[in-house]
User: Fold these one by one.
Assistant:
Number 1:
Amino acid sequence: MFSSHAADIAVRFIHVSKIFSAAGSRVAALCDVSGEVPRGSVLTVIGPSGSGKSTLLALCNLLLTPDGGEVWVLGREVRRWNPPDLRRAAGLVFQRPAFVPGTVLDNLLLAARLHNRRAADPEAYLSEVGLPADVLLRDPRELSGGQQQRLALARTLVNDPEILLLDEITAALDPSASRDIESLILARRAERGTTVLWVTHDWEQARRVGDYTWLLVAGRLVKAAPTPQFFENPPDEQVQRFWGGEPEGGKMS
Ligand code: ADP
Ligand code: MG
């Protein structure tokens, strides 16, 4: 597991733990997680609600800091990164994007400005995510769920991130819109070698888009394998137990 050359690794988790204290009790959101994501690969992360998936992504761009262990992104431990630079390099997209009041254009320009970039050609950003130029002056809230998610991606891509952190970005979309988003991300990866850490509830999606897949259960990385092996038929007991207890994700075919 640790044989690969450091330069070939986009993200490395080394004995990572994250503890939350809430209402007097302590929750280990992540517990001794170690693993690495090769550059240019798509890692899909699955697991029940509350298993630490979002926490794992948040550690990669300093929305959270680890309580134990280290998280290395593009060859540097996250706490040695300047946060804006790190967030430019590792862009996070959520399930339900939030937009500032105003137009699609306002939102793109703001994203660019926040990162000291000029959105030189906003229409180009839109076409990259398959949105027509005529949405530029519309209110993002009028767009369909799929279009909003495309806009959220466009806003992140303004920074040309080397790493995309995707947190259940298709969970609110219908299957056809989800597939479109998948194609978009995979095209981007093919074109630019973008590394993708993709948290998803949908194990069919994890199987479709992943090169590697991790299963988190109660903050522990209980299974990590190249995606075809991960989902080998029949799925092993651990995977089956997980999907058995998680009907909304468990579309066993
Ligand atoms: P997932 O994304 O897999 O649903 P999360 O990473 O969001 O899981 O959460 C993992 C655990 O950490 C859960 O038990 C959750 O309640 C807890 N947790 C997450 N964020 C916080 C927080 N800011 N404060 C307290 N507990 C939190
Ligand atoms: Mg989550």
Number 2:
Amino acid sequence: MSAPSHPDYEVVIGLETHVHMKTRTKLFCACELVYGDEPNHHTCPTCLALPGALPVLNEQAVDFALRAALATHCTVHPHSIFARKNYFYPDLPKGYQISQFEEPYCTGGFVEIETEDGPKKIRLTRIHMEEDAGKSVHDEGGGGSRVDLNRSGTPLMEIVTEPDLRSADEAEAYLKKLQSILRYLDVSEVDLEHGHFRCDVNVSLRRHGAEEYGTRAELKNLNSFKFIMEAIAAEIERQADVLDSGGTVQQCTLRYHPKTRTTSIMRRIERARAALPELPEAKRERFAAEYGLGERDVATLTAARPLADFFEAATREHGDGKAVSKWLLRDVTRVLNDRDLEFGDARVKFEPAALAKLIGLVDAGKLTASVAGDLLPEVVDGADPATLMAERGLEAVSDTGVLEEAVAAVLAENAAMVERIRGGEDKLLNALMGQVMKRTKGKADPGAVREILARKVTE
Ligand code: ADP
Ligand code: ZN
Ligand code: MG
């Protein structure tokens, strides 16, 4: 981190991080905060902005925000002001967001990170409280757009740093530190995947040794560490090119394109377009390119958005799109079909992370594919795969001693069959395999069993 991230320019970064607080209820009303429930089931006159409804500040939110302020060494102000920030969005029923502007509840702390040159303090400009908007849901079938106000009024903290970060690595170190502090304080799930932790990244360059900051560009709404790092690298390149060719950087809002690893300036119309969901055609192309899946699998996965979203979330957790797709399209689909359910139905409580975990246990050789398949219906119902495995002692058996014993027992019970195999009827080996698997309740590693069987039969 001590090395300059660009030979000619010093990189200057400031971060604005939005964090969902995990309070029981919303910031200004008593509606419960529930993630993933049926649309518009957690609303009331206040968060629907019905005339005459009055906001009442959530004490728990203030308490959580205070904890964050104290843990980051901020000065807490006994007096602070909430303000109306006007926007016109369909998912913002009041027509304004309640936020803090001139007098936030706290200012001036720091978060310490480790760098190669030792610890470094990243100064915080402020933390303020604000409420989140609702969510627009666009029907890709052309059936129009609808608004879900379950999220409307969710308490957020916005944590703003001074432009103290000097590289993408420092930005990452800061965000990870912040994440760990907030987790430790138990005030947020701090989960990027679910949008509990979103980040605007401000980047500028200046000549080494220069005193004044350069003009910054702002990368909006990045929601994964990988994209944050890549976007910063791409933006450094872009600005350096502009400066190298004698140009000046314009202050602007940018978006990041993961596929080409480039950033581009958002014009007004583009900003509106960027807010649209990805349309099916584009999604199909991207799935084929990004995950290397076959045409038929891509078509099935992208046919409906809830399944596509689940696939992507599980793949982010697990890493291998092909493995996730195989499990989803074969096993998970069968479980859901059996129950007349599909993704997108509020009754489906299945989390992408749970599928990723289950596949991970198979990858690690802890569960056999067959046992994992047996557990799947319960995992789909919300059970944790690792807990099920531990509670029921299902961990795969690869202990050769145990396997040898099981094979020996099966061979002793099937002397006649063993004779026939020795006589050339190789296929009967499968029947014996089946019996060993049954004996070990499907927990035996099939490869190891086959090897031992083949050896013992010919002994
Ligand atoms: P806005 O709310 O319009 O984005 P702020 O003044 O609140 O503007 O600044 C937002 C963020 O931009 C802060 O995190 C700050 O550290 C960062 N920032 C300000 N100037 C620069 C700069 N020249 N280079 C990089 N980051 C900057
Ligand atoms: Zn409400
Ligand atoms: Mg900003």
